[in-house]
C-alpha cells in the first residue's frame, strides 16, 4: 500500500522528462488508467448519456400521457356503459312489468274463453241429452204402439170370424168411400 501512495505523492522517483518508459507496477497504473478512462467517458459521454436519458424521460412521459388519455377514455366509456346499463335495466323492468300485466290479461282471457267453451259444451250436452231422451221416448212410444196394435190385431183376429171380418172390411171401405167424396 505504501508503494501506491508513494507513486502519487513522490515526484522524485519519476523518470526525467526526456525518456519514456513503461510502468510495470499494476497496482500503481490501474487506478490512474481507470480515472483517465472515467474522466474521458464522463467528459465525452455526458452529452450522449444526457441525450439518452432525455429521450428515455420523454418516452416515459409520453407513455404516461398516453396512459392517462386511455384511462380517461376508458372512464368515459365506462360511464357511457353504465348509463346504457341503467337505461336497459329500466327498459327490462318496464318489459317485465308489461309482460306480467300482459300475462295476467292473457290468463284472464284464457280463463274466460275456457269458461265460455265449457258453457257451450254444457249447453250442447244438455241439448243432445234432451234430443236423445225425446228420440228414446218416441222409440218407446212406437214400440208400445206397435205392440198394442199387434195385440189388438191378435185379439181381433182371434175374436173375428170370417163373416165379422168381411163386414168390418166392408164398413171400412164404405167409410173410405165417403171420405173420398168429401175431399173431392
From TrEMBL:
**How does the protein's chain sit in the membrane according to the entry?**
Single-pass membrane protein
Q: What InterPro entries does the annotation carry?
A: ATP_synth_b/b'su_bac/chlpt
As recorded in Swiss-Prot or TrEMBL, the protein's gene is named atpF
Q: Name one GO molecular function term.
A: proton transmembrane transporter activity
| Species per Swiss-Prot/TrEMBL record | Arundina graminifolia
| Cellular component, GO annotation | proton-transporting ATP synthase complex
Record's family? Belongs to the ATPase B chain family.
Which GO biological process entries does UniProt record here?
proton motive force-driven ATP synthesis
Q: What is this protein called?
A: ATP synthase CF0 B subunit
**Coiled-coil region(s):** 64-98
Read off the Pfam families from this record: ATP-synt_B (PF00430)
Q: Which UniProt keywords apply?
A: ATP synthesis, CF(0), Chloroplast, Coiled coil, Hydrogen ion transport, Ion transport, Membrane, Plastid, Thylakoid, Transmembrane, Transmembrane helix, Transport
UniProt-annotated location(s): Membrane
Function comment = F(1)F(0) ATP synthase produces ATP from ADP in the presence of a proton or sodium gradient. F-type ATPases consist of two structural domains, F(1) containing the extramembraneous catalytic core and F(0) containing the membrane proton channel, linked together by a central stalk and a peripheral stalk. During catalysis, ATP synthesis in the catalytic domain of F(1) is coupled via a rotary mechanism of the central stalk subunits to proton translocation.
Superkingdom, natural source: Eukaryota
Claim: Thylakoid is one of the keywords in the record: yes
Q: Where are the transmembrane segments?
A: 32-49
